[in-house]
Amino acid sequence: MKTIGLIGGMSWESTAEYYRLLNELTRQRLGGLHSAKCVLYSVDFAEIERLQAEARWDEAGDILAEAAKALEAAGAELLLLCTNTMHKVADRVGSAVGVPLLHLADTTAEAVRDRGVRRVGLLGTAFTMEQDFYRGRLASHGLDVLVPKAAGREIVHRVIYEELCLGVVKEESRDAYRAVIDELIAAGAEGIVLGCTEIELLIRPQDSPVPVFPTTRLHAEAAVSRALTTP
Hints:
The termini are close together. It contains ten helices and seven strands. By secondary structure, the chain is of the alpha/beta class. Helix 2 runs antiparallel to helix 3 and helix 8 packs antiparallel against helix 9 (171-186).
């Protein structure tokens, strides 16, 4: 198995999910006592969040690029950037190393298309929902991407940063997300992309009448498949 490098800590709540999923999926594929070969570089999310808020994306990208270099030096043969939002700087991170960076939006789009879905609703941070770096990447795969109205975007963003990144899961927030999902479906969404790694702590498949696409799980599944594929 190739060694998977994780650029995590954004937040560590979702990075813990990555670690769990990578090991569970590896055991399912290989059986017995097998677990994933991986190395983790966990950044201080407070520093990254401050740079996000101040739109200092190049500086944030440099921090993550240094993390990528450290993982490559530690033996990583495949990299995961364990956050949807920071894929805004994915090209900067990927170009800093000689090993492949598995893009989260690409693995998500592939799963959406495999289900025969073409129009999706996107939930994520305000950066992910409102800027083109993620929506455009999904659209490049032939998907039509819808986002919530302004009030819905505010709710989704606030819950991520003020609750889920702190490990807080509230039933009333789940209800609020369900209402946003219903609005997206009414607007024509055939599936819902959980485009923030923490959202999977809150929203489950049964919370949506249309398919949900949990990007953390999909990213982990693609990474394990890639790691177990011989050159």
